[in-house]
Amino acid sequence: MPTIEPSRDDWQLMRFGLDLTIFDDLSDPIWLVETAVEAEAAGWDGFFLWDHMVSARASHVTDPWIVLTAIAARTSRMSLGPMVTPLARRRMTKLARETVALDQLSGGRLILGVGLGAHDDSEFSAFGDEGDRRVRAQILDESLDLLTQLWSGRPVSFEGEHLRAESEPFLPTPVQTPRIPIWVAGTWPAKRPLRRAAAWDGAFPIKAGADFTYQMSPQEMADVLAFVDEYRTSGGHYDLVHAGLMSDDRAADSELAQRYAEVGVTWWLEHIYPGRMSPADIREFIRLGPPRTT
């Protein structure tokens, strides 16, 4: 069994991104693209957007995929992606085309965040999508297997309980090899989502029952890493992703980030949500740049 305990060099390479809940005041596509450009200039390493159709907590919601496409064309360095997209309401052929095109457009900077989606099942059932979470979990697993086949450049043959596909190679393939990285989100301490995450490239745990401010403690993140490590079947780099909340005191923020880095967190995603700050204050916060653990 491989171990993914971080080395001290890994701690010094912790990366910092922004995770935006693109509702209400944060739903303007032009503002989001301009904010991403400023974030890259300020030294942030990633820019990630929620993926919802509707929300009980918002009246305005935008489409992350169109916005991410524009961001990919206006930036050159930052990683980007949906955080997260619920695969149970996506067609894998369409998603394969979208992700490969976005990976090409960005020069290989896409990270695909996936999960079951909102705990409010009505976001799914209201539009005829599967509302039962257990069934959505089955579809998620099948979707990941089918999606990676579609990315492979080889003939596609898939027969699952919910999904089926037979196709000639689905070309072109992603820029990144062996494929686009996949981070799997899940609530903690529920074990099944994080066991699923162990099979892919990263785990994005959030605290069960929390609202927008769902950050976890360093000890909880260490517990997640220990659990995931039990089920890892391959070595190599593995991302442990934390959604956190900083202040405007970068010295204190750096000390806080170091506590997470030391237990194995590789990415800090600063969680930006409606009501936390005004759009103007968000811009000012982003211009401060990320705290570094070095």
Question: Quick summary of this structure?
Answer:
With 294 residues, the chain is of the alpha/beta class. The protein has helices at 8-12, 29-41, 64-74, 92-105, 122-125, 133-151, 192-197, 218-231, 250-261, 279-287; strands spanning 15-20, 46-49, 79-82, 85-86, 112-115, 156-159, 164-167, 182-188, 202-207, 239-244, 267-272.
Structural class: alpha/beta
User: How much of the sequence is in beta strands?
Assistant: 15-25%
Radius of gyration: 18 Å
CATH topology: the name is TIM Barrel
Strand order of the largest sheet: 3-2-1-11-10-9-8-5-4
Order of helices and strands: HEHEHEEHEHHEEEHEHEHEH
- CATH-derived architecture: Alpha-Beta Barrel
Unreliable runs: 1-11
- Largest sheet features: 9 strands, parallel
Helix content: 25-40%
Shape: globular
Compute the average pLDDT.
91
How would you describe this structure to a colleague?
This protein is of the alpha/beta class and 294 residues long. The protein has a single domain (8-124, 180-287), classed as Alpha-Beta Barrel (TIM Barrel). It is 36% helix and 18% strand. It has 10 helices and 11 strands. The protein has helices spanning 8-12, 29-41, 64-74, 92-105, 122-125, 133-151, 192-197, 218-231, 250-261, 279-287, and strands spanning 15-20, 46-49, 79-82, 85-86, 112-115, 156-159, 164-167, 182-188, 202-207, 239-244, 267-272. Helix 8 links the parallel strand 9 (202-207) and strand 10. Helix 2 (29-41) packs parallel to helix 3 (64-74). The two termini are 31 Å apart.
